[in-house]
Amino acid sequence: MTKPSLAVETLSICSGCEIAILDLHQALPGVLDAIDLKYIQVLMDFREPPKEGVTVGFVSGGVRNEEQVELLHKIRERSQILVAFGACSAFGGIPGLANLHTKDELLQEVYIDTVSTVNPKGVIPHKVVPPLLEEVHPISDFVKVDYVLPGCPPPPKLIAELVTCLLEGKEFRLEPKTVCDQCPLTKDEKSVTNFIRWGTKKIDPERCLLEQGFQCLGPVTQGGCEARCPTALAPCRGCFGPTESVHDQAAKMIGAIGSVVIQDPTKAPAPEQIVKEIPDLVGTYLRFSLAASTFKKALHTNVVKMKKGVKA
Amino acid sequence: MTKKNWEPKIVCFACRWCSYAGADMAGTSRIQYPPNARVIRVNCSGRVDPQFILRALKLKADGVLIAGCHFGDCHYVSGNYQTSRRVELLKEYLKEIGLEPERLRLEWISAAEGTKFAETMKSFVNEIKLLGPNPLADGGPE
Amino acid sequence: MSQKGKTIKIAPVSRVEGHGAITIQLDQQGNVADAHFHVMDVRGFEMFMQNRPVEEAQRIATRMCGICPVSHHLASAHAADALYRVDPPRTAKMLRELMHMGQLLHSHVLHFWYLAAPDLLLPDTGPETRHVVTLLQKHPDVVKKVIRARQVGQNIIEATGGRAIHPVTAQPGGISKPLSEEVRDDLIAQVDEALAITHELFPVVRPVLDKVELLDELKTGYLGLVNKDGNLDPYQGLLRLVDHDDKRLEEFPVKDYLKYIGEHVTDYSYLKFPFYLPRGWPKGMYRVGPLARINVADSIHTPDAREEFEKLHDQFGRTTNHTHLYHWSRLIEILYAIERAKELLTDSEITSDNVMKEVEIRGGVGIGVIEAPRGTLIHHYTANSDGILTKVNLIVSTVGNNGGMDRGVKTLAQRYIKKGVINPIILSNIETVVRAYDPCLSCAVHSINGQMAMQIDVKNHLGERVQVLRNFE
Ligand code: SF4
Ligand code: SF4
Ligand code: SF4
Ligand code: FES
To answer: Is A187 close to ligand 2, i.e. is its CB under 6 Å away?
Structure first.
């Protein structure tokens, strides 16, 4: 029997997803033995996936420029099974926060307005380099995706599980659990009287971080990471994306905030107060999934109008 | 859709214990209010998933009205308190994403306040008319 | 195959992290007229880190790079400490530094053994098989040791940072979680093992370490951190800039960096080119990373690393300009990282639970620096009085070597392409120079995104594209 083959295509990436594969460590030689690794740029001198014979294609990274759209279509055509590998590929990831700005704003900031840039002629790179798209996209905006392996990056343990499923021809599915379901910290009651910024108060190493008043996205985030962040006493930022029943992590988190506050209305903070205590709602609640959320990006023209106070 | 004959589309989530009955009363006692709203009956304002509200706006509703029981009257004790926090946060969300927060409104309307329901609807429709159509309706993201 | 008066483009450059391309312009005789290195993507962190709270930056910045996320995490924490004017407890600083040593170990082992070693140890193999998988088949026990050494690095990061890739614990004022004695003891055993492995691996590569003729010699300045004794310290200290002939140009705290460093923009790469401001671009070009640090440091305080450091300098002089020596320098730093990790782990205060100071939200400016595996990394934040970032400037390590890569490509192209004669082996040798810098293009293109793989665009002397040549189908 011929071995199933694997090709890994990278789009707009930080490379963490590839490193996560290497983080199989001692298990890696075994995997390389069971699978015919055809293509992974970070390790091999091939420039594109083979024309045929790819059983599984992993795509890491979101779609940021025109060239990546082509690369994505190519790997889709050449693979029997396509996996959105990692948060960027699945939901746009952190680079998706760029969707709060226009492409032109971004280029202007990076190449002209940053303080150490010396660019009197206002040069913006455009030769040889591929043009940017207006915004960052998850790959599902362009192609059919067979499996999603979330995480930023996906934990090696889940990568091994996925690979095993694929080798055995089984379906791969994450359990319908949230990060909270796997979190070791103690949740007792909904008793928050005010929300506080990270770093402004000592952390109680036993208690649920959200109930201590810190923002933690555990309740609205797909489980599977074994609650890595809260276990290290850092709040979840939602890198596994929404659970199957959730479409918009921010909306769901807003729902959770509504109910985590102490019930007694005489002790509860006023709604306006809560808004003040939670800065940067979109950047926190949609940290990894803005590009796949309800609106996907800021409505730029309207943002400008609203800033100027002009009504439509 | 031309701007001229544009009429705002409003989605209203109304609590069955109070506001929905209030809307009914407005209807039976023939209090006039603009016909722009689709009223959806919910078990408690606290049961309105914020995702539904965003969904309505995404589907190009021009405004969303949430109507629930007055404080102290909620059948689930704190449902309406939760709603008040959520709506405030949702407005912030809308602002950050570039949608006018005024498109979302929260009112407490009891079963007896048919007139208040009608008045609220009138003023909301007027306010939305000033804001204009949901920007998603013309060329916003899909 | 004859390619006169053409431009050759190699894309993507593989076995580096991210996406890049090389173009080579030939003249009418088919010799190299010009050559450039291009980075193909930009993500714009400087833009979208704005409007985020200062204390969230540590967890956003990591996504610039999955290979050296610790550097971004910590440079960001340094900037945030400065902005919120807080000095973290000693234990917190030690835990952060330990995390950084874990990263230096993992990243250097990754680069040297997974990415560069195939070039050095399998030079006669064709491009299709010149990679770590072949190395695994030919030298399975070497590769197993390599895997273990890197794993120790990642384990240190996970123990101190919560996650091996994109750690989460550093925050303004300290770190979220103390280190338990149990974990400490386990890490000490692992670090000892890593040191033993490293000494076993050295002889395998010793014969290729001083083959400086393989790559170019490039006279540039060098920038890197040194501690108060003038010794190697990738975690903290003063920035020292020396010239190619060992002349000390500057020594300054990072808060003054704008006086000394500027960044040049070209139309052909998404990557900017930093330079020593007083000299202007391109005269002020400097390099960063392992070789730069070995060049700027007076010495190294840990014994095994110092021995290698002295060996290198005895053989090549005080400041050396051979690009190939980046590899050797990287191995010296692997030793340093392990030895330093051991020092930190055996300090009695490392397991104290005094790991954070509460911060007060405020506005201001904070500038942080660290020596990432690939070189000096600067985060510069400005925040309003609510502690929300209003301006972000990032000088990322790989950017520091952009000029070196750009020039190196040209030198090698001139050496290997004569009268229009090109073959794929030559192409991959040119890539090798890029790889020597271990460019992490994903990191570099924090600014949109990275793809490093190559295609050669052949243009004639009029600049018209006449052929696209790729060393793949
Ligand atoms: S999902 Fe995370 S680890 Fe993977 S490429 Fe994106 S930012 Fe990097
Ligand atoms: S909210 Fe966060 S800290 Fe609390 S239980 Fe859920 S994951 Fe754990
Ligand atoms: S706790 Fe949250 S942010 Fe952390 S790894 Fe898990 S899903 Fe990702
Ligand atoms: S029952 Fe009416 S708002 Fe809760």
So the answer is: yes
Task: Quick: pLDDT tens for C315-363.
Answer: 999 999 998 898 899 999 999 999 999 999 999 999 999 999 999 999 9
Size of interface A-C (CB pairs under 8 A): 307
Of C186 and C11, the one with more pLDDT? C186
Mean pLDDT (whole number) for B71-87: 93
- In chain B the domains, ranked by start, together with CATH numbers, are 10-135 (3.40.50)
Q: Is the CB of C63 under 6 A from ligand 1?
A: yes
B neighbour chains, 3+ CB pairs within 8 Å: A
Residue A277 and residue A196 in contact, taking contact as beta carbons nearer than 8 Å: yes
Pairing of strands C20-26, B63-68: unpaired
Q: Classify residue C279 by its DSSP letter.
A: G
For B98, name the nearest residue in chain A, comparing CA atoms only. A303
Least CA distance to A246: which residue of chain B?
B51
For residue range A34-83, what is the model confidence (pLDDT) as tens digits?
Answer: 888 888 866 665 657 778 778 999 999 999 988 889 989 999 999 999 99
The domains located in chain A, with CATH, are: 5-96+128-168 (3.40.50.700), 179-278 (no CATH)
Question: At which residue do the structure tokens 């700027």 appear?
Answer: C296
- Closest by Cβ to A265, choosing from B81, B97, B100: B81
Chain B interface, Cβ < 8 Å to A: 46, 49-51, 53-55, 57-58, 71, 77-78, 81-93, 95-100, 130-133, 135-136, 140-141
Range name among A18-32, C18-32, C253-267 with the lowest pLDDT average = C18-32
Distance A217 CA to ligand 2 centre (A): 7
**Cα–ligand 3 centroid distance for A64 (angstroms):** 24
What is chain C's mean pLDDT, rounded? 83
> What is the average pLDDT across C284-310?
95
Whether C367 and C257 have beta carbons less than 8 Å apart is answered as: yes
Q: Which atom of ligand 1 is nearest to the CA of A14?
A: 8
Are the C-beta atoms of residues C43 and A100 closer than 8 Å to each other?
no
Q: How far apart are CA A215 and CA A198, in angstroms?
A: 8
Does pLDDT of C441 surpass 50?
Answer: no
pLDDT of residue C273: 79
Residue A294 to residue B95, Cβ atoms within 8 A:
no
Nearest to A73 by CA among A93, A53, A96, A49: A49
Ordered domains of chain C (ranges, CATH): 7-39+407-470 (no CATH), 45-400 (1.10.645.10)
User: How much of chain A is helix, strand and coil, in % rounded to 5?
Assistant: 35, 15, 50
Higher model confidence: residue B11 or residue A124? B11
Q: What are phi and psi of A258, to 5 degrees?
A: -55, -40
